[in-house]
Design a protein that fits this description.
Length: 376
């Protein structure tokens, strides 16, 4: 008999949800994490009375009622609705995602019919150029964006931002990344199409603390420093770290993008008037500025705190010692990942899950849905 049923490597969302559900079923779980806090990249730090998303803005959104009810059973969520604005190279501000407000700002079109005609004109131009080049299906992000939304929006709102975020040319990125963004012919600035969205009231740490209640948690504890010891402690391992590291990089390193933050407190109650402002020009070094208080305070309540905290986000290539954020799902990395996955599929008593172990660009809700499914 081992001391624990599950050793969970990584106290991020996947690990915490797993531990919660297993504990509820009477299993004994030990969660270890090398960082000095739980929560993985959804962890927040309270600075000047404001919950600061230390590893980038996290906005919970889903259409899955089971997932929504599940998270709300841990902590109630507020009514935050993500509606970023973009500061473009032409100097203008545009609403995101691409909707009637954006089309009005870009082309002066006032009705869905006018916008549709303009979009069609731009799409047709892009598609016929691709045909001439012998392309029938968009093969990369640039072709996908041009076929979806046309050259004006591509150049003002997509190209610079995407190339900064990924550190790669749009022609070298997979098309699916841009399909995440909705295109709508309504005056609706809600970034997501989902039925439910919000931020946990009191911050994400409340969600993580609630999920980890009843589990044993050890922080600043690195699985790789003593794998054998950890293996002996539990019947099964749930591994949520980097899959390539688990296999000692034997097929080579997977690449990640990561984000460096410059966070500062400003002597202003309301500095940019929105939680998220994207900077889509290649000439501005950061990708966006987050003003954290807007995730949790609305309307004039933002003036209750005379200070604000902002973070500039600089996207960089991941190197050892940094926290990896985004898997780079291009062809080369997918090939390497497939080799690791093959090994993982044959592993007994180890479950691989989450963004890093599955090398997948997961949002929060699909992670939860995945774990709920596993337990069903
Ligand atoms: N994107 C863009 N311009 C923007 C915002 C997003 O071109 O102003 C593109 C970019 O390619 C990005 C993708 O849309 O990688 C997905 O954006 P999302 O906001 O979903 O990224 P995340 O919030 O996960 O960083």
């Amino acid at each position: 008999m081992k001391q624990y049923d599950f050793l969970i490597v990584g106290a991020g969302l996947y690990g915490s949800v797993f531990s919660h559900l297993a504990t509820k079923r009477g299993k004994k779980c030990l969660v270890i994490d090398k960082r000095n806090h739980a929560g993985g990249n959804i962890y927040c730090e309270n600075i000047d009375g404001i919950n600061v998303h230390k590893y980038g803005a996290h906005i919970f959104h889903t259409s899955d009622k089971e997932v929504w009810d599940f998270v709300n059973s841990i902590v109630p969520f507020n009514r935050y609705t993500n509606s970023p604005v973009a500061q473009a190279p032409d100097g203008n501000l545009y609403n995101l995602p691409f909707n009637m407000n954006t089309f009005y700002q870009m082309w002066g079109v006032k009705t869905p019919e006018e916008a549709h005609a303009k979009l069609e004109e731009q799409r047709k131009e892009a598609i016929s150029k691709m045909r001439v080049a012998g392309v029938t299906e968009p093969q990369n992000l640039e072709e996908q964006a041009l076929a979806l939304i046309g050259k004006d929006i591509y150049h003002q709102l997509i190209k610079g931002y995407t190339e900064k975020q990924w550190g790669r040319k749009c022609t070298e990125l997979p098309a699916f990344i841009i399909r995440r963004l909705p295109v709508r012919l309504t005056f609706d600035n809600n970034y997501f199409n989902d039925s439910y969205q919000g931020i946990p009231i009191g911050g994400y740490n409340k969600l993580i603390d609630g999920l980890l209640e009843g589990s044993d948690v050890m922080l600043e504890t690195d699985f790789f420093e003593n794998r054998d010891k950890w293996r002996c402690m539990a019947e099964q391992i749930v591994f949520t770290g980097k899959i390539d590291e688990y296999y000692d990089y034997r097929f080579g390193k997977l690449e990640y993008r990561t984000v460096r933050f410059e966070t500062e407190t400003l002597d202003s109650p309301n500095w940019q008037g929105n939680a998220v402002v994207n900077y889509t020009s290649a000439d501005v070094p950061f990708t966006r500025i987050i003003e954290h208080k807007h995730f949790e305070t609305f309307g004039n309540a933002v003036y209750d705190n005379p200070l604000t905290v902002i973070s500039r986000e600089y996207s960089t290539e991941w190197t050892d010692g940094m926290e990896p954020f985004y898997p780079v799902n291009d062809a080369r990395n997918q090939e390497v990942y497939a080799k690791y996955k093959e090994l993982a599929d044959h592993e007994v008593n180890v479950i691989f899950g989450g963004r890093l172990a599955e090398y997948k660009y997961y949002d929060m809700a699909p992670i939860i849905s995945q774990v709920l499914k596993l337990f069903r």
